[in-house]
Amino acid sequence: MMTDKRIIQISTPDLGEEEWQALREPLFSGWVTQGPKVKEFETLFAQRHQVKHALAVSNCTTALHLALLACGVREGDEVLVPAFTWVSTANAVLYCNATPVFVDVDPITFNIAPEKIAAAITSKTKAIIPVHLFGLCADIDAIKRIAPQLKIVEDGACAAGAALHNRPAGSLGDLGCFSFHPRKSVTTGEGGMITTNDDALAAEVDRLRNHGASISEEQRHKGPRPYILPEFEVVGYNYRMTDLQGAVGVVQLKKLDRYIDERQRRAEWYAEQLKSIPWLRTPVVADGYKHGWQSFVTFVDESKSPMKRNDIMEYLQQRGISTRPGTHAVHMLQYYANRYNIKPSDFPGAQAANDFSMAIPLHNRMNDDDYAYIVNALRSIS
Ligand SMILES: Cc1ncc(COP(=O)(O)O)c(C=O)c1O
Questions:
Q1: I need a labelling partner for 330 at 20 to 30 A (CA). Which of 30, 85, 182, 233 fits?
Q2: 184 CB within 6 A, ligand 1
Protein backbone atom coordinates (compact mmCIF):
# COMPACT_ATOMS: atom_id res chain seq x y z
CA MET A 1 0.00 0.00 0.00
CA MET A 2 1.52 3.29 -1.14
CA THR A 3 0.80 6.16 1.23
CA ASP A 4 3.35 8.85 0.30
CA LYS A 5 1.70 11.68 -1.58
CA ARG A 6 3.07 12.23 -5.07
CA ILE A 7 2.79 15.22 -7.39
CA ILE A 8 2.03 14.06 -10.93
CA GLN A 9 1.50 16.65 -13.64
CA ILE A 10 -0.95 16.08 -16.46
CA SER A 11 1.99 16.48 -18.84
CA THR A 12 5.71 17.17 -18.54
CA PRO A 13 7.89 17.61 -21.62
CA ASP A 14 10.86 15.25 -21.85
CA LEU A 15 13.61 17.79 -22.51
CA GLY A 16 17.22 17.65 -21.34
CA GLU A 17 20.88 17.47 -22.19
CA GLU A 18 20.48 16.54 -25.87
CA GLU A 19 18.12 19.43 -26.59
CA TRP A 20 20.44 21.74 -24.64
CA GLN A 21 23.42 20.68 -26.75
CA ALA A 22 21.43 20.99 -29.98
CA LEU A 23 20.90 24.68 -29.26
CA ARG A 24 24.64 25.36 -29.44
CA GLU A 25 24.86 25.23 -33.22
CA PRO A 26 22.30 27.92 -34.08
CA LEU A 27 23.35 30.01 -31.08
CA PHE A 28 27.04 30.02 -31.99
CA SER A 29 26.50 30.31 -35.74
CA GLY A 30 24.19 33.26 -35.24
CA TRP A 31 21.56 31.84 -37.62
CA VAL A 32 18.56 31.81 -35.32
CA THR A 33 15.58 32.45 -37.57
CA GLN A 34 14.22 29.93 -40.10
CA GLY A 35 17.25 28.29 -41.70
CA PRO A 36 19.14 24.99 -41.89
CA LYS A 37 17.84 23.53 -38.61
CA VAL A 38 14.23 24.16 -39.59
CA LYS A 39 14.99 22.52 -42.95
CA GLU A 40 16.46 19.47 -41.21
CA PHE A 41 13.43 19.24 -38.92
CA GLU A 42 11.08 19.53 -41.90
CA THR A 43 12.92 16.82 -43.83
CA LEU A 44 12.78 14.40 -40.88
CA PHE A 45 9.12 15.19 -40.24
CA ALA A 46 8.19 14.63 -43.89
CA GLN A 47 10.01 11.27 -43.89
CA ARG A 48 8.39 10.12 -40.67
CA HIS A 49 4.89 11.08 -41.87
CA GLN A 50 5.41 9.82 -45.44
CA VAL A 51 4.65 13.09 -47.17
CA LYS A 52 6.43 15.02 -49.89
CA HIS A 53 6.45 18.34 -48.05
CA ALA A 54 6.61 19.45 -44.42
CA LEU A 55 6.70 23.18 -43.69
CA ALA A 56 7.42 24.43 -40.19
CA VAL A 57 5.47 27.36 -38.74
CA SER A 58 5.11 29.15 -35.41
CA ASN A 59 2.33 26.92 -33.98
CA CYS A 60 -0.58 24.73 -35.05
CA THR A 61 -3.06 27.61 -34.98
CA THR A 62 -1.08 29.49 -37.63
CA ALA A 63 -0.65 26.17 -39.47
CA LEU A 64 -4.44 25.80 -39.66
CA HIS A 65 -4.83 29.39 -40.83
CA LEU A 66 -2.33 28.94 -43.66
CA ALA A 67 -3.67 25.51 -44.64
CA LEU A 68 -7.17 26.95 -45.04
CA LEU A 69 -5.89 29.94 -47.03
CA ALA A 70 -3.90 27.62 -49.28
CA CYS A 71 -7.12 25.65 -49.93
CA GLY A 72 -8.72 28.88 -51.08
CA VAL A 73 -11.02 29.37 -48.07
CA ARG A 74 -12.28 32.97 -48.17
CA GLU A 75 -15.11 35.19 -46.95
CA GLY A 76 -18.51 33.59 -47.46
CA ASP A 77 -17.18 30.02 -47.40
CA GLU A 78 -18.19 27.49 -44.77
CA VAL A 79 -15.80 25.04 -43.13
CA LEU A 80 -16.95 22.03 -41.11
CA VAL A 81 -15.30 21.62 -37.70
CA PRO A 82 -16.03 19.20 -34.86
CA ALA A 83 -17.85 20.80 -31.95
CA PHE A 84 -15.44 19.24 -29.44
CA THR A 85 -11.89 20.43 -30.11
CA TRP A 86 -9.48 23.14 -29.03
CA VAL A 87 -10.88 26.61 -29.83
CA SER A 88 -8.24 27.39 -32.44
CA THR A 89 -9.64 24.82 -34.90
CA ALA A 90 -12.67 27.09 -35.26
CA ASN A 91 -10.77 30.36 -34.78
CA ALA A 92 -8.61 29.56 -37.82
CA VAL A 93 -11.79 29.53 -39.95
CA LEU A 94 -12.75 32.96 -38.62
CA TYR A 95 -9.26 34.30 -39.45
CA CYS A 96 -10.16 33.58 -43.11
CA ASN A 97 -13.46 35.50 -42.67
CA ALA A 98 -15.22 32.21 -43.35
CA THR A 99 -17.88 30.54 -41.19
CA PRO A 100 -17.16 27.53 -38.97
CA VAL A 101 -20.05 25.08 -39.11
CA PHE A 102 -20.03 22.70 -36.17
CA VAL A 103 -20.57 18.96 -36.50
CA ASP A 104 -21.16 16.76 -33.48
CA VAL A 105 -18.59 14.22 -32.30
CA ASP A 106 -18.83 10.52 -31.59
CA PRO A 107 -19.00 10.20 -27.79
CA ILE A 108 -16.77 7.12 -27.84
CA THR A 109 -13.87 8.30 -30.04
CA PHE A 110 -14.41 12.04 -29.29
CA ASN A 111 -13.80 12.60 -33.03
CA ILE A 112 -16.11 14.08 -35.67
CA ALA A 113 -19.07 11.76 -36.28
CA PRO A 114 -19.03 10.87 -40.00
CA GLU A 115 -22.77 10.20 -40.06
CA LYS A 116 -23.44 13.80 -38.96
CA ILE A 117 -21.41 15.39 -41.77
CA ALA A 118 -23.80 15.18 -44.75
CA ALA A 119 -26.51 17.26 -43.03
CA ALA A 120 -24.03 20.08 -42.36
CA ILE A 121 -22.92 20.50 -45.99
CA THR A 122 -24.32 23.39 -48.06
CA SER A 123 -23.41 24.90 -51.41
CA LYS A 124 -20.98 27.17 -49.48
CA THR A 125 -19.03 24.38 -47.79
CA LYS A 126 -15.45 24.45 -49.02
CA ALA A 127 -13.48 22.38 -46.56
CA ILE A 128 -13.59 20.18 -43.47
CA ILE A 129 -11.15 20.05 -40.56
CA PRO A 130 -11.26 16.58 -39.03
CA VAL A 131 -9.38 16.67 -35.73
CA HIS A 132 -7.33 13.64 -34.66
CA LEU A 133 -8.23 14.34 -31.07
CA PHE A 134 -5.79 13.28 -28.34
CA GLY A 135 -3.81 11.38 -31.00
CA LEU A 136 -6.56 9.15 -32.42
CA CYS A 137 -7.11 9.62 -36.15
CA ALA A 138 -10.55 10.73 -37.32
CA ASP A 139 -12.24 8.39 -39.80
CA ILE A 140 -10.87 10.11 -42.89
CA ASP A 141 -11.88 7.27 -45.21
CA ALA A 142 -15.54 7.71 -44.26
CA ILE A 143 -15.22 11.49 -44.63
CA LYS A 144 -13.83 11.09 -48.14
CA ARG A 145 -16.72 8.79 -49.06
CA ILE A 146 -19.33 11.18 -47.66
CA ALA A 147 -17.83 14.46 -48.88
CA PRO A 148 -15.39 13.83 -51.75
CA GLN A 149 -15.85 17.42 -52.97
CA LEU A 150 -14.42 19.01 -49.80
CA LYS A 151 -10.81 19.94 -49.14
CA ILE A 152 -9.56 18.11 -46.05
CA VAL A 153 -7.29 19.90 -43.57
CA GLU A 154 -6.31 17.43 -40.86
CA ASP A 155 -5.95 19.00 -37.42
CA GLY A 156 -3.26 16.65 -36.22
CA ALA A 157 -2.15 18.98 -33.39
CA CYS A 158 -2.11 15.97 -31.06
CA ALA A 159 -1.33 13.30 -33.63
CA ALA A 160 2.38 13.27 -34.51
CA GLY A 161 3.23 9.64 -35.24
CA ALA A 162 -0.39 8.41 -35.29
CA ALA A 163 -1.73 6.41 -38.24
CA LEU A 164 -4.86 5.02 -39.86
CA HIS A 165 -4.41 1.67 -41.64
CA ASN A 166 -0.64 2.27 -41.76
CA ARG A 167 -1.04 5.69 -43.38
CA PRO A 168 0.39 8.39 -41.08
CA ALA A 169 -1.62 11.35 -39.80
CA GLY A 170 -0.76 14.31 -42.01
CA SER A 171 -0.78 12.19 -45.16
CA LEU A 172 -4.51 11.44 -45.11
CA GLY A 173 -6.06 14.72 -46.33
CA ASP A 174 -4.98 17.59 -48.57
CA LEU A 175 -2.93 19.17 -45.80
CA GLY A 176 -2.08 18.20 -42.21
CA CYS A 177 -1.35 20.54 -39.28
CA PHE A 178 0.67 19.64 -36.17
CA SER A 179 1.54 21.28 -32.85
CA PHE A 180 4.75 21.21 -30.82
CA HIS A 181 3.27 22.88 -27.74
CA PRO A 182 4.71 21.35 -24.53
CA ARG A 183 1.55 19.31 -23.94
CA LYS A 184 2.19 17.42 -27.19
CA SER A 185 4.35 14.27 -27.45
CA VAL A 186 7.24 16.20 -28.98
CA THR A 187 7.81 19.87 -28.32
CA THR A 188 9.73 22.90 -29.49
CA GLY A 189 8.20 25.25 -26.91
CA GLU A 190 5.70 26.65 -29.38
CA GLY A 191 5.78 25.34 -32.92
CA GLY A 192 3.79 23.83 -35.75
CA MET A 193 4.12 21.91 -39.02
CA ILE A 194 2.08 21.71 -42.21
CA THR A 195 2.29 18.57 -44.33
CA THR A 196 1.11 17.95 -47.88
CA ASN A 197 1.83 15.88 -50.96
CA ASP A 198 0.70 18.70 -53.25
CA ASP A 199 3.48 20.88 -54.71
CA ALA A 200 1.23 23.87 -55.36
CA LEU A 201 -0.24 23.85 -51.83
CA ALA A 202 3.27 23.58 -50.38
CA ALA A 203 4.48 26.55 -52.45
CA GLU A 204 1.51 28.63 -51.32
CA VAL A 205 2.09 27.80 -47.64
CA ASP A 206 5.79 28.55 -48.09
CA ARG A 207 5.21 32.07 -49.32
CA LEU A 208 2.33 32.86 -46.93
CA ARG A 209 4.37 31.94 -43.85
CA ASN A 210 7.10 34.37 -44.91
CA HIS A 211 5.21 37.66 -45.45
CA GLY A 212 4.08 36.50 -48.89
CA ALA A 213 7.66 36.87 -50.14
CA SER A 214 8.52 35.23 -53.45
CA ILE A 215 11.98 34.14 -52.21
CA SER A 216 13.07 33.13 -48.71
CA GLU A 217 15.60 34.97 -46.52
CA GLU A 218 17.89 31.95 -46.74
CA GLN A 219 17.84 31.97 -50.56
CA ARG A 220 18.46 35.71 -50.53
CA HIS A 221 21.48 35.40 -48.26
CA LYS A 222 22.97 32.64 -50.39
CA GLY A 223 22.21 34.27 -53.74
CA PRO A 224 24.86 35.82 -56.00
CA ARG A 225 22.82 38.97 -56.70
CA PRO A 226 22.62 40.94 -53.44
CA TYR A 227 20.45 43.66 -54.94
CA ILE A 228 17.50 41.30 -55.42
CA LEU A 229 14.62 41.78 -53.01
CA PRO A 230 11.63 39.44 -52.98
CA GLU A 231 8.43 40.36 -54.75
CA PHE A 232 5.22 40.47 -52.72
CA GLU A 233 2.17 39.55 -54.74
CA VAL A 234 -0.10 38.73 -51.78
CA VAL A 235 -0.55 39.78 -48.16
CA GLY A 236 1.38 37.20 -46.17
CA TYR A 237 2.26 36.63 -42.52
CA ASN A 238 5.31 36.12 -40.39
CA TYR A 239 4.47 32.62 -39.14
CA ARG A 240 8.02 31.26 -39.35
CA MET A 241 9.65 28.88 -36.89
CA THR A 242 13.08 29.82 -35.48
CA ASP A 243 16.18 27.70 -36.01
CA LEU A 244 16.45 27.39 -32.20
CA GLN A 245 13.11 25.59 -32.26
CA GLY A 246 14.13 23.63 -35.35
CA ALA A 247 17.25 22.35 -33.57
CA VAL A 248 15.20 21.16 -30.59
CA GLY A 249 12.61 19.68 -32.94
CA VAL A 250 15.21 17.51 -34.68
CA VAL A 251 16.24 15.95 -31.36
CA GLN A 252 12.67 15.54 -30.16
CA LEU A 253 11.40 14.00 -33.39
CA LYS A 254 14.07 11.31 -33.24
CA LYS A 255 12.52 10.23 -29.91
CA LEU A 256 8.90 10.28 -31.12
CA ASP A 257 8.53 6.57 -31.78
CA ARG A 258 10.09 5.64 -28.47
CA TYR A 259 7.74 8.05 -26.72
CA ILE A 260 4.68 6.61 -28.45
CA ASP A 261 5.76 3.00 -27.78
CA GLU A 262 6.09 3.74 -24.09
CA ARG A 263 2.76 5.57 -23.97
CA GLN A 264 1.08 2.68 -25.83
CA ARG A 265 2.41 0.23 -23.25
CA ARG A 266 1.28 2.43 -20.37
CA ALA A 267 -2.13 3.02 -21.98
CA GLU A 268 -2.68 -0.74 -22.28
CA TRP A 269 -1.73 -1.15 -18.64
CA TYR A 270 -4.12 1.62 -17.57
CA ALA A 271 -6.96 0.03 -19.58
CA GLU A 272 -6.35 -3.32 -17.90
CA GLN A 273 -6.05 -1.90 -14.39
CA LEU A 274 -9.02 0.45 -14.67
CA LYS A 275 -11.50 -1.89 -16.36
CA SER A 276 -12.94 -2.98 -13.01
CA ILE A 277 -14.12 0.57 -12.29
CA PRO A 278 -17.73 0.57 -13.54
CA TRP A 279 -18.08 4.34 -13.90
CA LEU A 280 -14.88 4.98 -15.85
CA ARG A 281 -14.54 4.37 -19.59
CA THR A 282 -11.00 4.21 -20.94
CA PRO A 283 -10.16 5.06 -24.59
CA VAL A 284 -11.44 2.66 -27.24
CA VAL A 285 -9.07 2.12 -30.16
CA ALA A 286 -10.58 0.31 -33.16
CA ASP A 287 -8.60 -2.07 -35.38
CA GLY A 288 -6.40 -0.32 -37.89
CA TYR A 289 -5.80 2.75 -35.74
CA LYS A 290 -2.37 3.55 -34.32
CA HIS A 291 -3.01 5.95 -31.44
CA GLY A 292 -0.45 8.72 -30.87
CA TRP A 293 -1.42 8.96 -27.15
CA GLN A 294 -0.96 12.70 -26.77
CA SER A 295 -3.26 12.20 -23.81
CA PHE A 296 -5.23 9.45 -22.12
CA VAL A 297 -8.80 10.72 -21.93
CA THR A 298 -11.36 8.79 -19.93
CA PHE A 299 -15.11 9.35 -19.64
CA VAL A 300 -16.89 9.51 -16.28
CA ASP A 301 -20.34 7.93 -16.31
CA GLU A 302 -22.01 9.96 -13.57
CA SER A 303 -25.03 7.65 -13.54
CA LYS A 304 -22.74 5.00 -12.01
CA SER A 305 -20.07 7.04 -10.23
CA PRO A 306 -20.24 7.85 -6.52
CA MET A 307 -19.12 11.43 -7.22
CA LYS A 308 -19.53 13.91 -10.04
CA ARG A 309 -16.70 14.28 -12.57
CA ASN A 310 -15.60 17.62 -11.14
CA ASP A 311 -15.55 16.25 -7.59
CA ILE A 312 -13.47 13.30 -8.77
CA MET A 313 -11.02 15.74 -10.36
CA GLU A 314 -10.79 17.71 -7.12
CA TYR A 315 -10.33 14.52 -5.10
CA LEU A 316 -7.44 13.50 -7.36
CA GLN A 317 -5.95 17.01 -7.22
CA GLN A 318 -5.88 16.79 -3.41
CA ARG A 319 -3.82 13.63 -3.84
CA GLY A 320 -1.36 15.43 -6.13
CA ILE A 321 -2.74 14.02 -9.38
CA SER A 322 -3.44 16.56 -12.12
CA THR A 323 -6.38 15.90 -14.40
CA ARG A 324 -8.11 18.02 -17.05
CA PRO A 325 -11.32 17.88 -19.06
CA GLY A 326 -10.25 16.34 -22.43
CA THR A 327 -10.82 19.72 -24.10
CA HIS A 328 -13.83 22.01 -24.49
CA ALA A 329 -16.96 22.03 -26.65
CA VAL A 330 -16.34 25.09 -28.79
CA HIS A 331 -20.04 25.66 -29.47
CA MET A 332 -20.49 26.13 -25.69
CA LEU A 333 -17.80 28.83 -25.43
CA GLN A 334 -19.35 32.24 -24.92
CA TYR A 335 -18.09 33.80 -28.14
CA TYR A 336 -19.35 31.02 -30.39
CA ALA A 337 -22.57 30.39 -28.47
CA ASN A 338 -23.49 34.11 -28.75
CA ARG A 339 -22.30 34.73 -32.28
CA TYR A 340 -24.09 31.73 -33.79
CA ASN A 341 -26.89 31.44 -31.22
CA ILE A 342 -26.10 27.80 -30.40
CA LYS A 343 -27.41 25.85 -27.42
CA PRO A 344 -25.22 23.29 -25.60
CA SER A 345 -27.73 20.54 -26.45
CA ASP A 346 -27.46 21.26 -30.20
CA PHE A 347 -24.38 19.01 -30.16
CA PRO A 348 -25.07 16.41 -27.46
CA GLY A 349 -21.95 14.32 -28.14
CA ALA A 350 -19.72 17.35 -27.71
CA GLN A 351 -21.69 18.52 -24.67
CA ALA A 352 -21.22 15.14 -22.97
CA ALA A 353 -17.53 15.08 -23.85
CA ASN A 354 -17.20 18.61 -22.44
CA ASP A 355 -18.93 17.71 -19.18
CA PHE A 356 -17.70 14.17 -18.51
CA SER A 357 -14.30 13.67 -20.16
CA MET A 358 -11.27 13.48 -17.89
CA ALA A 359 -7.66 13.27 -19.01
CA ILE A 360 -5.40 11.50 -16.53
CA PRO A 361 -1.58 11.76 -16.60
CA LEU A 362 0.24 9.84 -19.33
CA HIS A 363 3.64 11.11 -20.40
CA ASN A 364 7.28 10.13 -20.67
CA ARG A 365 8.41 11.50 -17.32
CA MET A 366 6.33 9.08 -15.23
CA ASN A 367 7.47 5.84 -13.65
CA ASP A 368 5.80 2.59 -12.51
CA ASP A 369 5.05 4.02 -9.07
CA ASP A 370 3.35 7.08 -10.55
CA TYR A 371 1.03 4.91 -12.64
CA ALA A 372 0.26 2.60 -9.71
CA TYR A 373 -0.45 5.61 -7.49
CA ILE A 374 -3.01 6.96 -9.99
CA VAL A 375 -4.72 3.59 -10.41
CA ASN A 376 -4.96 3.18 -6.63
CA ALA A 377 -6.40 6.67 -6.24
CA LEU A 378 -9.07 5.99 -8.87
CA ARG A 379 -9.93 2.62 -7.38
CA SER A 380 -10.31 4.22 -3.96
CA ILE A 381 -13.29 6.22 -5.24
CA SER A 382 -16.29 4.12 -4.34
C1 LIG B 1 -6.88 19.93 -31.56
C2 LIG B 1 -5.99 21.12 -31.48
N3 LIG B 1 -5.92 21.97 -32.51
C4 LIG B 1 -5.11 23.05 -32.49
C5 LIG B 1 -4.33 23.33 -31.40
C6 LIG B 1 -3.47 24.56 -31.40
O7 LIG B 1 -2.11 24.26 -31.31
P8 LIG B 1 -1.05 25.39 -30.95
O9 LIG B 1 -1.08 25.58 -29.48
O10 LIG B 1 0.27 24.83 -31.44
O11 LIG B 1 -1.43 26.63 -31.70
C12 LIG B 1 -4.36 22.48 -30.30
C13 LIG B 1 -3.53 22.76 -29.11
O14 LIG B 1 -3.74 22.33 -28.03
C15 LIG B 1 -5.20 21.34 -30.33
O16 LIG B 1 -5.29 20.49 -29.29
A1: 182
A2: no
